Amino acid sequence: MLQSLSHHFKCGSSFGLFLSHSLSSVSEEDLTHFRSFLPKSAVLTDAEDLIPFNEDWLKKYHGNSRVVLRPKTTEHVSKILKYCNERRLPVVPQGGNTCLVGGSVPVKDEIILSLNSMNSIRSFDPHAGVLTCDAGCVLENLEVFLAEKDHIMPIDLGAKGSCHIGGNVAANAGGLRLLRYGSLHGSLLGLEVVLADGTVLNEMSTLRKDNTGYDLKQLFIGSEGTLGVITGVSILTPPKSNAMNVVFLSCDSYDQVLRTLEMAKKRLGEVMSAFEFLDDDALGSVLGHMSNLVCPVEERRSFYVVIETSGSNKDHDEEKLMAFLEEVMGDGIIADGVLAQSETQFKDIWALRESISESLNKKGAVYKYDVSLPQSRMYDLVEDIRKRVGSQSLITCGYGHIGDGNLHLNVVFPSFEKKHEEILEPFVYEWVSKEHGSVSAEHGIGYMKPKVLHHSKTWESIRVMKTIKDALDPNGILNPWKVLPEKIQ
Ligand code: FAD
Ligand code: MLT
Ligand code: ZN
């Protein structure tokens, strides 16, 4: 007998009407069905095994799923979704589970559909630089594969050792190289997606130009598992640069950071591949966490900048960098600076930047705000929050992809508590909204931000999003309670 414990939840529709989807819970009969066509190892039900799948990376969101399915093929995914759609069983697609907005874990007892057994590289065309692969390939493994072919992935982020390319696409992740290689909306050439009813949408184009009607793949980039399950990816990979340099600079004020950015755009424009910043609290957190790393400059200052160049001629790039450094030093724009002299120093400087997130996570409960703002106003938000929080937080810091206008404001408390959240929210979102910024620059909406989506999208746009959701997933089984707000005006 099918157990029909139903969750009734409301989802908004146009003009304030609310439709109710009725969702079921997994029964023993459902598990027997999944076991009938999936390998034994692809159906996890042991409570111990489920723990890491039910909890997010920040340990802020906890689901209560009783089963993880790990399909090996697109056909498996199709069969699972067809069945779940008929049975009204909700499903959370999960990649590397590095999501920072609670999108990758269940809210209640949704089935977790993990892509980590779909991890084959399908093809690589060295002339076109086009890679096709399964969605569950770990980003770093793709990097390693491409390095041998003298190519790189157009996306790079601190979570590369765990995150999947499918998760990157579903989240429309930005990362450290967006400044140079643009967003996934530009470098992604094709996708294979399984829709809620099990239909396999083969959009695996390898063409750079293809103007044949609606560009459907774009809909799934940043859809966060709410419109379909991505099973295959076709992506344009840039050639590896012959010459890469990284510099670590220190500044005494945020204004100096902005002037450094302005100067770097002028002097290093065509070779610059990253421009990142961090404040001294962020640096202090990493140095406290990674005993093998040291501050690259002699004295600690208020702010630091990491600039990477990737070009084709080492001498030419170094000449440009040295001229830039002399100018910013000479004009007193920076306090000090170091150009990495070895592969180890290059990696250590990047490790400082990339490990901020992990170091904060080790300190306590991290409230993360990933926002787009005019660069000139970015740090005012961090300062306003510092004043507001006072001595209540363990650490309040700012860092991020300043070259892309993306700030990461992080506030660490000893534990996640409503009273802490209330100091920060909705204050941060209202602040961002007044500046016409975005409440999510790159991490997405997930479970954390549906209620504040309206700060960055009009209700007309949200209603169109809901129309698309209803068309592709009429029973609301895909990642329920994520992205779209419950109440829509
Ligand atoms: P998950 O976390 O598993 O899932 C993310 C979302 O996509 C969820 O909503 C999930 O349901 C959905 N999803 C996952 N796979 C699929 C699929 N195959 N089909 C459909 N939906 C799917 N983000 C940035 O943008 N820039 C950064 O610089 C950055 N750095 C990070 C550094 C660290 C240390 C960490 C922990 C996270 C970072 N992130 C960053 C956040 C995160 O978005 C990325 O790590 C990554 O894109 C998530 O990939 P994932 O495979 O872990 O996806
Ligand atoms: C980063 O840029 O380091 C990531 O987006 C993770 C974070 O915001 O902490
Ligand atoms: Zn980031």
Automatic annotation (TrEMBL):
GO terms for molecular function: FAD binding; oxidoreductase activity. Its cofactor is FAD. Residues 61-240 form the FAD-binding PCMH-type domain. Keywords: FAD, Flavoprotein, Oxidoreductase. It comes from the Eukaryota. GO terms for cellular component: mitochondrion. PANTHER family: D-2-HYDROXYGLUTARATE DEHYDROGENASE, MITOCHONDRIAL. Belongs to the FAD-binding oxidoreductase/transferase type 4 family. This is D-lactate dehydrogenase. The lineage of its organism: Eukaryota, Discoba, Jakobida, Andalucina, Stygiellidae.
